[in-house]
């Protein structure tokens, strides 16, 4: 339902992108399309004059969904205070995330943001993250892929990347190596599994047609809510044990990881520290792995793009006197403009956070004239934005890294047109770190291995979790590249 406020008459007009039925509103359509929610809502938004639509369900939940950059700039920056995450979202995720940076508003958020953004800008943290990624690539990822190539076994690249990202973000968050990429059976592996369950089961709370059904299940301690409680308890126990031992050995000096930097402030309680660490792990865990999974899938059917990446890597190796197998440092990674473009293009089509929702604090009018009522949800649809002809032209659904290139470098995009990393005061803190990690992995893998995707011609589906995961994973056969082809 597209609602427009005529400035002259100040009388709202309702127009719809969704089919609305008497009494039940958009519910039948929602149920019919729940399994393809992102594509369904993309089509609806594309048919609306300003790429914005109002969403109604029976009961009091209602809000707007928008893919309009002006509206997004308004809610994420110009009228930021009016669009917090809101009590509903905070409440649904509170059992798992507590009041960590990812799940807080107002002062609680501001305090964490201030410290975290200061630390994220330090060279020492960036170097530490870079070093952790390098080690994980050299000692775990490459040997694992070599072995898969020797055995000619198909592997699930998504799962491998998820384990990689989990190891990496745990190192950055609290300097613990769960060694998930090394194999199963470790306590870190149990932590990762529990973390995954907790994230997936928490996100399911958003999809209940009867919103409070999960609360009844929680009260009775049955089904998914029981499993959620168990997984949260495993995650919390693991994190608390580490934090406790770190507090005990606290020398008062800042260490390299984030936790130590927060511990240095004596005022932070155990719960506060736990929530921060968990928020960071959640933020950095599935996002980079999701992005790279879609990137490798897109690349598998585009040998021309792969060739351009190989050529770029070759010229960097020549310039810096490197050979295949050496890891790249920060300066070299920064010079990988085409690779940057190829990853950004994958992020455009498959944003790891496809939807993001805020709550409206006071009645407001969006720049496109859409009225938003107090208490409504406001969702911006990053996935739909990557598929809008109005934003990216007629070839918007094509994978084309070239659209990012300008005079040999990857151009910057307006974050409100490309809100893949959010925008405004709450913009993703890990963006640079994420690109460094993704480019390091992509460069090391592409120059050494060919990836032959099993079922290349089938377009994979996606699973709605907190991030956009590929349904069934990405199964590939890996083959070591011949050196003469690379050179
Ligand atoms: C491709 C990779 C990534 C993408 C696409 C991404 C995207 C996002 C998005 C959309 C948000 C806003 C979420 C919301 O507030 O609802 C966000 C927030 C955040 N991200 Fe990332 N992220 C990525 C990687 C990372 C990494 C690697 C880290 C850290 C290790 C990180 C740390 C954070 C933090 C701490 C926030 C919360 C910021 C705040 O609320 O002030 N992200 N990210």
UniProtKB/TrEMBL annotation:
Binding-site positions, heme: 428
Keywords: Heme, Iron, Membrane, Metal-binding, Monooxygenase, Oxidoreductase, Signal, Transmembrane, Transmembrane helix
Keyword Transmembrane helix: yes
A matching Pfam family: p450
Subcellular location field: Membrane
InterPro entries hit by this protein: Cyt_P450 (IPR001128), Cyt_P450_CS (IPR017972), Cyt_P450_E_grp-I (IPR002401), Cyt_P450_sf (IPR036396)
Cofactors demanded by this protein: heme
Similarity comment: family membership: Belongs to the cytochrome P450 family.
Protein name listed in UniProt: Cytochrome P450
Organism: Tetracentron sinense
